[in-house]
Design goal:
The chain is an alpha/beta fold. The chain is 39% helix and 12% strand.
């Protein structure tokens, strides 16, 4: 897959416009229906990028570390459903997600409750996509860099949430650890965060507006996720 950029996203938004519109409408309805029972975490642009990447990559095995109430889980499962293939393996210490994932999506999903640091053996072999949105402390980031990343094939598309709420990651945070690690390993990343990449965020907003995809699902616009491919370690 072409590296993420505004140009490549323009292609993806155009290609998946119709399907993305349906998923956005469904997510909007779900959020209204569930109310306080659904605490949505991903913002719209990063959720849409996650969906489109999964559509384009067509992964067989996706691993999600951190589900909370299942907002990101449902976005990812929607992509796998629309692909007609693939399975999502989710891990979290709480199981709120079980009450929120629609039944028609559960056939492509396995949820493991518990600390992933104690369930590393449950991570499937040959992971094709890795999504991390769990403990945002530096200690957890060091753990997954040292233990999870080596267990995942080099080149695996990966995303980490809550990195860029500002121009720089917060000191002593997961974000500061992962960004330094990426720099040390000469790995480039893409973020739609308006705090970090305001020009890119503005261009994406114009792409969405031109396609009529700009009606928000959520009001939050932080979009702090980073996207990158794991290096071979």
């Amino acid at each position: 897959m072409e590296a993420l950029s505004v140009d490549s996203l323009r292609t993806l938004y155009t290609k998946y416009e119709a399907d993305l519109r349906k998923v956005k409408d469904a997510q909007r309805s779900l959020l209204q229906e569930r109310g306080k029972a659904m605490k949505a975490q991903l913002d719209d642009v990063e959720a849409e990028i996650s969906y489109m990447r999964l559509r384009e990559l067509r992964p067989a095995k996706v691993v999600e570390i951190g589900t909370f109430y299942g907002w990101s889980t449902i976005w990812q499962l929607s992509a796998l459903r629309d692909n007609g293939t693939g399975h999502l393996y989710s891990f979290d210490i709480v199981d709120h997600v079980v009450r929120n994932v629609p039944g028609e999506l559960t056939g492509q999903w396995t949820f493991t409750k518990g600390d992933v640091r104690e369930n590393l053996d449950s991570i499937p072999q040959d992971v094709d996509y890795l999504f991390i949105d769990a403990d945002h402390g530096a200690r957890f980031a060091r753990w997954y860099i040292e233990n999870l990343f080596p267990a995942v094939p080099g080149g695996t598309p990966t995303s980490v949430h809550d990195v860029y709420h500002g121009r720089r990651p917060k000191p002593f945070s997961e974000g500061s650890v992962i960004v330094k690690w990426l720099a040390d390993n000469n790995v480039e990343f893409f973020t739609p965060s308006p705090a970090k990449s305001p020009a890119e965020y503005a261009e994406i907003a114009e792409i969405k507006k031109g396609l009529g995809l700009d009606e928000p699902v959520r009001d939050s616009r932080h979009n702090p996720m980073i996207f990158f491919d794991l290096p071979s370690l």
